[in-house]
Amino acid sequence: MSTTTLKKLTFIEFLEQYPDGEGIFELVDGEIVQVEPTRAHKNVARYLVRCMDREIERLGLDYIVDKDIVIRTVKASGKEQGRNPDVGVVLSSVWNNNVSAYGAVTEPIQLAVEVVSTNWEDDYIDKLDEYQRLGIAEYWIIDYLAIASRTILGSPKFPTVFVHQLVDSKYQTQAFKGADRIISLTFPEINLTTEQIVAASQMSKL
User: Measured between alpha carbons, how far is 105 from 112 in angstroms, rounded to an integer?
Assistant: First the structure.
């Protein structure tokens, strides 16, 4: 990540100053920060978008899935953040409420997916708290490189998909490894395993 501004911005100011067409950015502690994912990271996100799009079309679900949905979150301190999940799933009615607006929402989306990078604490700690606080119904953490600590992943460490589902305003968590089929409330019939997601990264070809 690289910071592009020193001025402390609100969420609206972040949207107004978003460097459109120059990459992916988030608002973190009042600063515009560029997110620079690897190609493997992007491969995983792209694969998930395809899988979820197929499910939406197959079952006629009232969702839109996209890689560029910016959402307004709030930290425990009350500070506004602007997050851009690697994959976002939002109700069509929410997305189409104002189609002339940019791709940013303040309402809770249905599902946020973060693909873990070297700054893994952001996904496991900061974003988890912010997404739970906002009321996002489901949050996936895709740790395809098993990069988090042993406290989180266990020992030995294996690639894991954590699915957090909101129950009484708190996330309940399930962990999926290997050939486990991922259980999702948003996509209850999706046939997807951690092995398939890891393979989509193409890291095995290096």
Answer: 13
